[in-house]
Design goal:
The complex is a heterotrimer of chains A (about 500), B (about 475) and C (about 100). Chain A folds into 3 domains: about 5-300, no CATH class; about 305-420, no CATH class; about 430-490, Arc Repressor Mutant, subunit A (Orthogonal Bundle), CATH 1.10.10.410. Helices cover about 40% and strands about 20% of the residues of chain A. Chain A has helices at about 60-75, 170-190, 230-245, 295-300, 305-320, 320-330, 330-340, 350-370, 380-390, 400-410, 415-420, 430-445, 445-450, 460-470, 475-490, and strands at about 5, 10-25, 60, 80-85, 85-90, 100, 110-115, 125-135, 140, 150, 160-165, 200-210, 220-225, 255-260, 265-270, 280, 290. In chain B, about 35% of the residues lie in helices and about 15% in strands. The two termini of chain B are about 15 Å apart. Chain C has about 100 residues and is an alpha+beta fold. Chain C has 3 helices and 3 strands, in the order ααβαββ. Chain C is flat. In chain C, about 30% of the residues are buried. At the A-B interface, loops of A face helix 9 and helix 10 of B. Strand 3 (about 60) of chain A pairs parallel with strand 1 of chain C.
């Protein structure tokens, strides 16, 4: 695969690393008992600790620690028995303590890796440097008042897992696939709800460009991107910007950038921490976090099947392609739906590829069109299974099945019921089909002549006419066979 | 001025020899007479009377029912504003009650007011307060003396008999040194014995709440009341709190006292060496074995402390930014302007000095050389004590290198001021319990204190030794 | 001299404390003398010594993941120097 981008003068390669911030799916915050519920009225979920009142102290949430360990296991990473919470000191309106409690020298999770799968069947490992726990900041609103910034501390103190990758990513697509894969793992583990719109999952992107084979170039960090689309756009724009500078003889200034979602452009933050000096030191209000082998073992044993394991199982059991299997396992709801569908009838196991297609193309496009989610699909896995069975036993044609699915989707009726009510069963009676074909041949003598003179393409015309007369119910293979037979006899 | 003890007062209340109202009226009167000492940052007679009313209508039995207590203004209290003696917390009214003060309220005590201190507990003379100096009640006319610090207001409140006990906090000596200067008893318990929840933080790994009282028995009663595990403080210790008072035992026969040779410092006034020797002699007479011990890293304790404490403080005080509570400057053209002016105008000179030094020792390129180095030396200091306590049951030293000094002395040289803590800081770094009791006077008839240090959570031994020395001195 | 004009400006800026020239001078003097004084720690051999952050030997206590609903925005905003529409208000920030 060619990952290079063309500049004016020569080719360039992007070098990309991601810092993903995933909100731990917990009831309460990392160091306080305030609720983490999204969308509550401003400053209503703020405890004395979150507002950094004098004399307030942090106490860690056990569940959040366990979720970080769980996620570490899911990222094939080393779990550290000893980790330390540090203070990262800086001033900002939505940082009430004047420091963020994070983990610096000793994170809870060390090196790991995840695999991304390409359409062409190949795959690639992206290495993880670390995962650590930290507090989220509050929210600053700059557009509510002409002269003031408003501060809402509801998010202040919510638990985040920061997942840092090595700069192993080379294209915007890979970046997208990487974050999708992380999201998928988090959702299988149920450690993060993966909701990018609400900011439960967001990323900072580090990007530089280089001539292939060169050392890494100077990088810029694009802050706080909360959709895969924006991540790709931002990378594309930023890479082009850097290449233009380099090709015109300039050099890249290491910078923190913001991405404007409406213009699709990046620009340096105005409010640069001119002297970035966070003065990390161990938080004296907390003791080191120690996790025993037993605790880690217990958490490991509670972990469900993860996408990669499931993918391999699907490939093995159903002989699916690597790509099909990875599409099925990208989201837990999809693999769950697939499992339920294929297990709804023992026959379907032999038609796994058809099941995949009906889920990932037909059903998905209906869901998309209607802006619905698989989890609330009006078509249950059992009903879809029934529909596929009708196809595989030749009771209805694939074309009719598409109409049936649409009706199932809108009415909620079962496939069987729709087929019966409307008499949509395929016509598989040889005599009946032959009769229709005779009719078509008789009505179109000129066409027959042309066909016989060598205009093979006209076969389609006859099929169409015959289908029309059977209202599409004729078994297409039988129709084809009989039609050819009859036309050739005329010769 | 006859000072009655807490123990005796509890008996008198119990036998109805005196009522809660009469008792507190007496204290209110003295508080008003002594306003010139500037002991309190917040005092409201009305508030005290309201508490008396409430208690009179309360029939439940409470251990400290009606006892007048003064609270260092570093403890957050719901019924009174809390300032930490800083302009930056002007008009701050906590909506919550600190763990320690809640315990005292639960026991039925009456808060007479919030006492003065060095701003954010940073100082040794109660002269860095935004609300002015506190004057040592033992001062002679025309020569005002410092009460010590940082808990100078609380020490002075007890010394002037404006209450039967007071809370303090001790980070490097802030209870023991003012107790020594004011001639009262002051105990800093083991780090973690009393929850720090609701106490404005100075240096989190060192801060510890404690008690001032007229005598050791009273201190043992009050400490028991404020000690205990608190799940809201991650460094709070899960230990059983004994009934220190009931268990008091002045028989020290067979015990071993450690006398650290490093505490004999050149330039220590003769009288202080003298009372130290006197104390050792008294102990010897009581059958205590005298053991000369060595705490070899003692001389490094002060520089270690003056790196660690400011470093933690620089971060702990970052929350005072004019956004959520307290003072905000009027010059606020931008967010950064607001921060810089608020903090420049809101903090006093000593606090700023410590924030700056703390910021420096944590900053990139200096962390290892200063902060990390200090943490390592701190480990060696703690290890010194661990080794020493294998050979002795407690350690006895002077509390401070001088008696109370004149109010305006030592103000311009920070290091000279820091040297006040020379005998108290090592135990703070090691998290050990320490008490100061009055033991003798200097040539100007000013009190001098003896410090007794114990093993972690062995407050009982500290009290036993203290009560034994106190009884022999009386 | 460890602390010069530049350094004091940098740390004052990091601390968000505005200093006038007179104060800067004073603090340069104070901080240099304090740093010279603490320099004596270099006499101590700390090779292979573990740094001590907290004297407590207990294990970090953990709480259960239970959220309370006792928070109130009125209480949180009660002491705020400037509050508007349920928010803390600060001078406008341009990012």
């Amino acid at each position: 695969m060619n990952n290079l981008i063309k500049g004016e003068k020569h080719d360039w390669e992007m070098v990309i690393g991601l810092e993903i911030h995933a909100q731990v799916k917990s009831n309460s915050k990392l160091f306080s008992s305030s609720s983490t519920k999204f969308g509550s009225s401003p400053n209503s979920q703020v405890s004395l600790v979150d507002a950094a009142m004098p004399g307030m102290l942090p106490v860690i949430n056990k569940y959040c620690v366990e979720q970080a360990v769980k996620t570490g296991v899911g990222l094939n990473a080393k779990i550290n028995n000893y980790s330390v919470f540090d203070r990262k000191n800086y001033f900002y309106a939505d940082l009430p303590q004047g420091y963020q409690i994070s983990q610096y020298k000793y994170p809870i999770v060390g090196e790991g890796k995840v695999t991304i799968d390409f359409k062409d069947g190949t795959s690639k490992d992206i290495r993880i440097v670390r995962l650590h726990l930290e507090q989220d900041a509050g929210k600053s609103l700059h557009d509510q008042n002409p002269s003031k910034t408003y501060v809402d501390l509801n998010r202040s103190g919510v638990a985040l897992m920061e997942i840092v990758s090595e700069p192993d990513i080379r294209t915007p697509d890979e970046a997208g696939m990487y974050i999708s894969k992380i999201r998928s793992i988090l959702m299988y583990l149920d450690t993060c709800d993966g909701n990018m719109q609400e900011g439960s999952l967001r990323a900072d992107v580090n990007i530089s460009v280089r001539k292939p084979g060169d050392e890494y170039g100077t990088r810029c960090e694009i802050k706080n991107l909360n959709s895969i689309k924006f991540i790709k756009q931002a990378i594309n724009y930023e890479a082009k910007r850097q290449i233009e500078i380099l090709e015109s003889g300039g050099s890249i200034e290491q910078n923190t950038m913001l991405f404007n979602t409406s213009t699709g452009k990046t620009r340096p933050m105005r409010n640069k921490e001119e002297a970035h000096d966070y003065r990390y030191f161990p938080d004296p209000d907390l003791l080191p976090l120690k996790i025993s082998k037993e605790e880690i073992g217990k958490i490991k044993s509670s972990i469900p099947e993860l996408p990669d394991e499931l993918k391999n199982k699907f490939i093995e059991t159903y002989k699916l392609s690597n790509y099909d299997a990875s599409v099925l396992t990208a989201e837990k709801q999809t693999s769950d739906y697939f499992n339920e569908t294929i297990n709804s009838d023992s026959e379907l196991k032999n038609h796994a590829k058809i099941v995949v297609n009906w889920i990932t193309s037909e059903l998905f496009s209906l869901l998309n069109k209607n802006n619905q989610d698989l989890i609330n699909s009006p078509v249950s896995p059992e009903n879809l299974g029934q529909l596929i069975k009708l196809i595989s036993t030749n009771e209805i044609s694939g074309k009719i099945a598409k109409d049936v699915l649409e009706e199932m989707f809108s009415s909620g009726k079962t496939a069987r019921k729709i087929v019966d009510e409307k008499g949509l069963q395929q016509v598989t009676d040889q005599g009946e089909i032959a009769k229709v074909i005779d009719e078509v041949i008789a009505e179109n003598p000129k066409m027959v002549e042309q066909y016989l003179a060598g205009k093979d393409k006209l076969l389609g015309f006859f099929v169409g006419q015959a289908m029309k007369l059977t209202k599409g119910k004729a078994n297409p293979k039988m129709l084809n066979d009989i039609l050819k037979q009859k036309l050739n006899k005329k010769n | 001025m006859s000072k009655s003890s807490l123990k005796q007062t509890l008996k008198d209340l119990d036998t109805k020899k005196i009522s809660i109202r009469e008792l507190n009226q007496d204290y209110l009167k003295r508080i008003k007479e002594n306003e010139n000492l500037n002991v309190f940052i917040h005092f409201s007679e009305e508030n005290v009377l309201k508490q008396i009313d409430n208690l009179e209508n309360d029939n439940s039995a409470k251990k400290l029912k009606g006892i007048p207590i003064a609270i260092k203004d570093l403890f957050c209290t719901k019924s009174m504003p809390t300032t930490a003696a800083s302009k930056i917390l002007e008009n701050f009214n906590p909506t919550y009650e600190s763990f320690v003060t809640q315990k005292l309220l639960d026991e039925g005590s009456i808060f007479v007011g919030k006492t003065n201190l060095d701003e954010f507990a940073m100082g040794s003379a109660t002269n860095t307060s935004f609300f002015g100096n506190t004057i040592n009640p033992l001062s002679k006319e025309n020569e005002p003396l410092a009460p010590g610090g940082s808990s100078g207001g609380s020490a002075a409140a007890v010394a002037a008999d404006l209450c039967l006990g007071a809370t303090g906090t001790d980070t490097g000596g802030s209870i023991r040194q003012p107790a020594s200067f004011c001639g009262v008893v002051g105990i800093k318990p083991t780090y973690g014995l009393c929850s720090r929840w609701g106490i404005a933080a100075f240096a989190s790994s060192l801060d510890q709440a404690g008690i001032f009282s007229h005598n050791v028995e009273d201190a043992s009663i009050l400490l028991q009341s404020i000690a205990g595990f608190d799940q809201r403080d991650s460094t709070s210790a899960k230990v059983d709190i004994p009934n220190y008072f009931e268990n008091l035992d002045d028989d020290l026969n067979g015990k071993t006292v450690g006398i650290p040779k490093e505490y004999s410092i050149d330039g220590t006034p003769m009288e202080i060496s003298q009372i130290w020797e006197d104390a050792i002699k008294v102990l010897e007479k009581k059958g205590v074995r005298i053991k000369n011990i060595s705490l070899p890293h003692t001389k490094y304790a002060l520089p270690t402390y003056y790196i660690i404490a400011p470093a933690e403080a620089s971060s702990n005080l970052a929350r005072y930014d004019g956004v959520k509570y307290g003072f905000r400057s009027d010059e606020i053209d931008s967010l950064d302007e607001m921060y810089e002016n608020t903090r420049a105008q809101g903090f006093g000179k000593e606090v700023k000095r410590r924030i700056l030094i703390g910021t420096y020792v944590l900053s990139a390129g200096y962390y290892d050389a200063y902060y990390l180095k200090a943490q390592k030396v701190r480990k060696l200091i703690a290890d010194d004590f661990n080794k020493a306590f294998k050979e002795c049951d407690f350690i006895v030293t002077p509390t401070a290198p001088s008696a109370a000094f004149p109010l305006n002395e030592k103000q311009n040289d920070p290091i000279k001021m820091y040297l006040n803590d020379v005998f108290t800081v090592p135990a703070s770094l090691a998290g050990l319990p320490g008490i100061s009791i009055p033991f003798g006077k200097d040539k100007n008839n000013l009190p001098l204190g003896i410090q007794i240090l114990g093993k972690h959570f062995d407050e009982q031994q500290v009290f036993n030794t203290a009560v034994s020395l106190e009884r022999s001195y009386e | 001299m460890k602390i010069d004009k530049n350094t004091i400006n940098k740390i004052a800026r990091l601390s968000r404390i505005k200093l006038d020239d007179k104060e800067s001078e004073d603090y340069i003097k104070d901080l240099n003398s304090i740093l010279d004084w603490v320099e004596q720690l270099n006499e101590v051999n700390t090779e292979n010594v573990e740094p001590l952050s907290n004297i407590s030997s207990s294990i970090l206590p953990k709480r259960e993941d239970v959220s309370n609903d006792t928070n109130s925005s009125e209480e949180i905003l009660e002491n705020a120097p400037d509050k508007l529409e349920g928010f803390f208000a600060v001078p406008k920030v341009v990012e």
